[in-house]
Amino acid sequence: MTTIDAPQPDSRSVIRTTAATTAFVVGWYALPDYVRSKAARTVLKTAGLAAFAALGIRDMRHDDTWQKTVATVRGTGTPPWKLTDQAFEGSRSSQAASDGTQASDAPAGEGTGTQTTPSTVAPDGMDRTTQVAALAGAGLVVMGSSVLTVVVEKKVFHRNEARAARGVRLPHTRSALLFGALTALVAVPDVWHSRAAESAQR
């Protein structure tokens, strides 16, 4: 049985997400050129974040990949990152039965050289210590990236305010267009990969 990652989203979904993200980034960084009130910008940015998150959730729930993953997870009880090609081809019941047989034939930890108890094993089979460490690492990464984003945004804002004071027209918009172009450029490999996967399935 070959273990694979969850299927890649279709290219149209990737393009829609990229377009929405690019527009959001441009609007986010260009806003000071058009709304001078800091309080008003905060309100608009908060509303924009909420709308962007809602759009992402709606798009995800309507995406074939999401629906297929949810259906498979519910059918097998297998975490998304442990889904198999057989599960995606419709053999969910046989895999679940196989997993149940293996669980009843051997105690947890037997044959691996380690003795684990049910209290130390998470529902997905991952050791709880490993799971906690992974979650902590992910949290640190998110926190670090958030802090870095805030620092960079403040530096860009103050730099563009100084440029505006020197008479440069729409400095924030210029930076916003650059960041938007970089955002779209980063997503190009994902679009190519999705289209290549679609072509291979035809």
TrEMBL record:
<feature type="transmembrane region" description="Helical">
    <location>
        <begin position="132"/>
        <end position="152"/>
    </location>
</feature>
<keyword id="KW-1133">Transmembrane helix</keyword>
<feature type="region of interest" description="Disordered">
    <location>
        <begin position="76"/>
        <end position="125"/>
    </location>
</feature>
<keyword id="KW-0472">Membrane</keyword>
<feature type="compositionally biased region" description="Polar residues">
    <location>
        <begin position="91"/>
        <end position="104"/>
    </location>
</feature>
<keyword id="KW-0812">Transmembrane</keyword>
<protein>
    <recommendedName>
        <fullName>Peptidase S9</fullName>
    </recommendedName>
</protein>
